[in-house]
Amino acid sequence: MSSTIWSVDEHLEDILTAVQPLEPIELQLPEAQGCVLVEDVVVEIALPPFDNSSMDGYAVRVADVAGATEEFPAVLTVIGDIAAGDAGLLGGQRVGPGEAARIMTGAPLPAGAEAVIPVEWTDGGTGEGPAAAMRAHRDAPEGARGEVRVHRPVGARAHVRDRGSDVRPGDLALRAGSVVGPPQIGLLAAIGRSTVKVRPRPRVVVISTGSELVQPGEELSGGQIYDSNSFALTAAARDAGAITYRVGAVTDDAETLRATIEDQLIRADIVVTTGGVSVGAYDVVKEALSSVGDEDEPGGGIDFRKLAMQPGKPQGFGSIGPEHTPLLALPGNPVSSYVSFELFVRPAIRTLMGLPDVHRPTARATLVSDKALSSPAGKRQFLRGTYDAQAGTVTPVGGSGSHLIAALAQADALIVLPEDVTSAEPGTDTEVILIR
Length: 436
What we know:
Blueprint: E1 5-6, H1 8-18, E2 25-28, H2 29-32, E3 36-37, E4 41-42, E5 52-53, E6 57-60, H3 62-65, E7 74-82, E8 99-103, E9 115-118, E10 146-150, E11 160-161, E12 172-174, H4 182-190, E13 195-199, E14 203-209, E15 213-214, E16 225-226, H5 229-239, E17 243-250, H6 254-264, E18 270-274, H7 284-289, E19 301-307, E20 309-310, E21 314-320, E22 325-330, H8 334-353, E23 362-367, E24 373-374, E25 380-388, E26 393-396, H9 405-410, E27 413-417, E28 423-424, E29 429-434
Parallel strand pairs: 1-19, 7-8, 14-17, 14-18, 15-16, 18-22, 20-25, 23-26
Antiparallel strand pairs: 2-13, 3-13, 4-12, 5-11, 6-8, 6-9, 7-10, 19-21, 21-22, 23-29, 24-28, 25-26, 25-27, 27-29
Helix pairs in contact: 1-8, 5-8
């Protein structure tokens, strides 16, 4: 372990300098969800590609329904049906004077028609009062012929979605750097793109260490605790945008841990371990990985460090394996490991994704507490808190102990007390990192 005391910023800079965005690949749309575009997407077709109806109703000429009322309706001859996807368009027949075509939502506007009358503004071809709905063609084919009484006038292009009113050829659909989410996938599909060039979601392997760890659902015996870290960090990595693999807790045996990590490298873009990085006699991660790179992978290796922060003083970072896969070794205490993930692992994952902004948002907030908060001199402290954006305040949750995981579950922010602050009085203006 290095004897140098690293600052939080120095450790993070070292990580982000070493971690590079993943190489772009072409993916089918479903597989591209959550990935980051590496090139601008330009529209090649108009959307919608043709004038179409936004209502179920009748395609008409404006002059034919001018002045129409329920008492004195305009009576038009229905010349046929036009359904969504209909390419026949009345067999080429135009909507002429005194005529109308029954039309469904999304169907193309026929030649000669200038607007669409909603079916509720007509008698629906029944000869009775205002219609509530339009009967399907299969149920009432006679509705495509005969007469319809129109009870209201309409303006030109009413209830018509114009060709290209959404996007036109040459428009920029999505910018490089955009995350491909459900709306983006919908747009890409709508303009005819089946694949897109993106940086893939990083594959993150999370491994917890400790012979005392038991999987949730099993019985505890003396000296044992449940493994919470691997579950929390796997969920956090997934929340950051990664594809995640959780490995069950590894016992305190250096060879077993090293073999486990090496087995996982085939599916890892980054490896995260938790536990075994302090100064205890059973700190297995240091024992297993301290010499990696010196002996096996030139240019690799894991450097174990002390950081001027609380919680999370012991940290490890480097690379392992023939591909120099980044490995971040986090402390084992639950709060320490989670805070370390937020500060160091999450930005690394977002960097691998190629995102322009890899950090959580921050804010300034007034400290609300019953007493002053103490902080060790020379260390940057991160306390759990709840942030009220409307009031601009933050309230501490729980104490500063690195094992107090219940308070972490209630927190939505980290209160940052700088290295030169040893006491923060109520009312102090503080920086907060928003973690939800």
